Amino acid sequence: MGANSLHVLKGINFSVAEGELLSIMGSSGSGKSTLLNILGMLDEADEGSYVLDGVPIKNLSEKQAAKYRNKFLGFIFQSFNLIGYKSALDNVALPLYYQGLSRGERIDRAMSYLEKVGLANWAGHLPNELSGGQKQRVAIARALASDPKVLLADEPTGALDTKTSYEVMDLIQEINDEGRTILVVTHEHDIAQMTKRIVNLKDGLIIEDTVVSQVRAMENV
Amino acid sequence: MFDLDRWDEIFETIRKNKLRTFLTGLSVASGIFILVVLLGIGEGMRNGISREFEEDASNLIYVWPGVTSKEYKGLNPGRRIQMKNEDYNQILLLYGDKLDKTAATFQNWGMVLNYGKESGSYDVRGTFPAYQVLESISLTAGRFLDLNDLNNSEKNMVIGHRIKLDLFKDEDPIGKIVQVSGVNFKVVGVYTDKGGEREETRAVIPMTTAQRAFGGSNNVDRLYLTLDPEEDFDKAVAASTQFSAELDEFLKSRHTVAPDDNSAIHINNSLENAKRFYTLMDMIKYFFWGVGICTIIAGVVGVSNIMLIIVKERTREIGVRKALGAQPLSIIGMILHESIFVTAIAGFLGLIFSLTLLEFIGPMIETQYIYNPTVNFTVAINTVVILVIAGAIAGFFPAWRAARIKPIIALRDE
């Protein structure tokens, strides 16, 4: 926005294979959010290339970006970002609305994803009637609803206590076990240890990229 | 527009924001209300004016002489002009083919009428049979003067309803004898005039009788003329304006009056007056439209303002929607749709309320200048069209702004 441009990312080169569960770590200002925004097509890199499932993501119109986001990506946010006046079920069904599915089909699919996260009984509740962990699980169901290639989770446990965090991570691990690619941005080591690979960022550069032996979240609950 | 889910979304947001929506709607509803009521009053004023003109034959040309104000051809100003039978006859000779109905009067003010013990002071007019049509008077009893009365200088008299009440009370006046300055007249008819009571304090007698009995020699005081009817109003106005001018010129030259002396001969042209009034009414109508439209604009600005606040409030939600794959067009549609919906519903309520008011209160209004205020169907349809357009305008800028919200900024955690 200002006249002075600031280079946040200074040359990042990495690829993620299908089915990976990867965490991006780094202190604040390391560029991890910017990286996630670029991966999420919410922002565009000045230089370089980004290929998602064989499709180059470059110079997208707003319309196209919206289409790709809907088709390829599922977002999970630290503050859940559920729509307050919509029930859990309607929140999960929203991405399907933008895919142009019929109402019946949307409800069916959304319900099956709510069942998957164990909240089928809470389908009619508004977000403010749910606990933090439940909200995040609804958000995860919503991210899964459009059956995306990649889930992008920005500090998914940042607003949750340890026990709930682990429950959410357990769900994420389960989803990953089914073969879905997931990127988690976090600054908590214990959360990072629950993924399969850790990319460590500092001042816009990758300083470490290691495969770790995954700690199952359930063991710590 | 027919997307059920879109409607769902709109009803949901409206349900969540009842007060806000209500206040928004109120500004639009009152705008429409004011517009429609103003237009109704405008129409009522038009009706009222039309009714005023019903009093006399609507294309009446009325001539009365005055006093000269300018020196002309050696004659001094201050000379009273007196028309004669010859004037009337010459006019009939010259313009007879154009004229429909004509009458002249010889008037005597403040004549004392006696019947038995009762007496009163009234105007007594000598005139022709056509006077009845030209003054738009209707008889409640008996008959009006006829050609026989005129030709034989009969001492017959038609009296106004007021005179009948004053002199005869409940008695039937027809055939009774009334004395005017010692001359006996037989009452043959009683008339009423929509113009009011003052017009009913007159007695009408044959022209020939009046001139002979009251020393009028061949004097004529007033001329009443109507032209043959024309196809439409504008033509009629043009014809009567032209005739008035010719008549003015003719009378001035006969009486040696300066052509630019306007106090010597007065010609009142009802059609010209009517046209002037109708033009004025049209101006008032346009003014009312202007005021009404401005009120609606104020309402629209209000809606627009509130929609902007809504967009601001829903920034994060719109960001989330975009992250989930909402296209800019669908965001614009959502905001625009809500805005048009709120404006249209509120506007309709305003419309219905104002129409009901005009329907029920309208007929109760009984003043001289407003009569039966109504709004016709076309006007109602026009306001509906204006509403939808207004809603679209009100929603457009907020929608545009909403579409440009960047999800990355909207989703940033505070």
From TrEMBL, chain B:
Query: Per its UniProt record, what InterPro entries does this chain match?
Result: ABC3_permease_C, MacB_PCD, Macrolide_Exporter_MacB
Q: Give TM regions.
A: 21-41, 286-311, 331-357, 377-397
Please tell me whether the keyword Transmembrane helix is annotated for this protein: yes
A Pfam family hit: MacB_PCD
Ranges where the MacB-like periplasmic core domain occurs? 21-240
Domain named ABC3 transporter permease C-terminal is located at 291-407
Which of UniProt's keywords are assigned here?
Answer: Cell membrane, Membrane, Transmembrane, Transmembrane helix
Main localisation, per the record?
membrane
- Compartments it resides in: Cell membrane
Quote one Gene Ontology molecular function term. Answer: transmembrane transporter activity
Topology relative to the lipid bilayer, per the entry, is: Multi-pass membrane protein
- Write down any Gene Ontology CC term: plasma membrane
Source organism, top-level taxon: Bacteria
The name this protein carries in UniProt is ABC transporter permease
Naturally occurring in which organism (per UniProt): Christiangramia lutea
